Amino acid sequence: MEFWFDYASIYSYPAVMRVHRECALFEQNLVWKPFLLGPFFKSVGFENAPFVVNEKKGAYVWIDIKRECAKYGLTWNKPSHFPRNSVLAARVALVGIAEGWIEPFSREIMQRNFAQDRNIGAREEMIAALEALKLPAIEILHRASATETKALLRSNTEEAMKKGIFGAPMFISRGEMFWGNDKLVDALQFAKCGQLAPID
Amino acid sequence: MEFWFDYASIYSYPAVMRVHRECALFEQNLVWKPFLLGPFFKSVGFENAPFVVNEKKGAYVWIDIKRECAKYGLTWNKPSHFPRNSVLAARVALVGIAEGWIEPFSREIMQRNFAQDRNIGAREEMIAALEALKLPAIEILHRASATETKALLRSNTEEAMKKGIFGAPMFISRGEMFWGNDKLVDALQFAKCGQLAPID
Predict the structure, then answer these.
(1) C-alpha dist (Å) from residue A195 to A87, A174, A182, A186, B91
(2) Which candidate, A18, A13, A73, places its Cα nearest to that of A185?
(3) How far is the alpha carbon of B136 from chain A, nearest alpha carbon, in Å?
(4) Most A CBs within 10 Å: which of B57, B163, B185, B188, as the mutation test of the A interface?
């Protein structure tokens, strides 16, 4: 199953925190796909996330995500700035995929953004996050800013656009999109069985 | 629990088909709140439903609703026209609430719109729907077009706007909004216990 997410995206937070374990329960392989939502929003004429543009939906989202986090036992603190710049985190994530620490890194960044209200876009905050994971921060930042890493993130984002991805988190199972944290289990069931279990 | 819905809204279809039984399971009282989404979309500058405006999201929705209907054992046929005019159905629904046949009526209309591809906005189709339910169609249509009924629908729609409702179906439990068919069980759990059951 492909897991498309953006570190700036609210509902990508519970998805990142749940995805590894749920994949294990369904015995499905997990393909991490960090990308940037910003270019998509701009391409459809939004200046920002739809629920920043749409005030009423925005008000709802902050209530809903708080309830959802409580449901999954996750700490939630509304970020004082939203959305945060997630370019650096996404580039570091690509290094993490290559080096095998993408899961703990993603959890760390999401918790910093949505539980600890820290600016994940700042270089010094990224160093602190990597050091908290006992990773060689400076070395990794160097790799994250390499031309190939930047190109890979652009290519992920272009792939997302081409696939028709319009939001995050997005799960892709057997070529079908499942949108939103609410749909994680459906996506895994579909990956495993090719259909959703009927609900009585 | 309040159940806000529009007969033109895709995800209101599975919600209408499920809501009565789920409320019974949770021992919750159901307050039917038909309203019109159109005026809300216009108020935020959309000319149509957001997924008609946003092409990629639109493409996704038609795949997702098909899967969702299969999951709940509901027949689905993509309507040849979308969205259909739901003003007449909403007015008749208000008569149905007063007279106690809102549930079978709502199921009938949703199935006609989303399983049988019939134009629920046409007077002759409404007559056929009411007659299928063995209801006095002409009498009901007369009541549905009364000044008070029209005013009541406008007042429902204004109430929805004032409450911050931005989509359908919307469930309101203890003053909190739960958006989408996916959230029906959460809304009922919240209505019953004042919190969501934690997911391990």
Answers:
(1) 35, 10, 17, 9, 38
(2) A18
(3) 34
(4) B57
Which DSSP string do the residues of A61-122 spell out, in sequence order?
HHHHHHHHHHHTT------SSSSPP-HHHHHHHHHHHHHT-HHHHHHHHHHHHHTS---TTS
- CB contact A60 to B (< 8 Å): yes
B40 confidence band (pLDDT: 50, 70, 90): confident
Q: What's the CA gap between A52 and A61, in Å, rounded?
A: 10
Residue A196: list chain B partners with CB under 8 A. 67, 70-71
Positive or negative, the Cα torsion across B73, A177, B16, A199? Answer: positive
Interchain proximity B59–A164, CB inside 8 Å: yes
From A137's Cα to the closest Cα of chain B, the distance in A is: 33
DSSP per-residue letters across B91-121: HHHHHHHHHT-HHHHHHHHHHHHHTS---TT
Query: Using CA atoms, how far apart are residues B4 and B143, in angstroms rounded to an integer?
Result: 22
- B189, containing H or E segment: helix B184-193
Q: What is the pLDDT of residues B170-182, one digit of tens each?
A: 999 999 999 999 9
Interface contact B196-A71, CB threshold 8 A: yes
How many residues are listed for chain A in this entry? 200
Number of A to B CB contacts under 8 A, please give it.
76
Q: Band the pLDDT of B192: cuts 50, 70, 90.
A: very high
Q: Are A34 and A94 contacting, i.e. CB atoms less than 8 angstroms apart?
A: yes
Note the pTM of the prediction, 2 decimals: 0.93
Angle at A186 (CA atoms; ends A105, B31), nearest 5 degrees: 115
ipTM field? 0.89
Q: Which residue has the tokens 């994971």?
A: A133
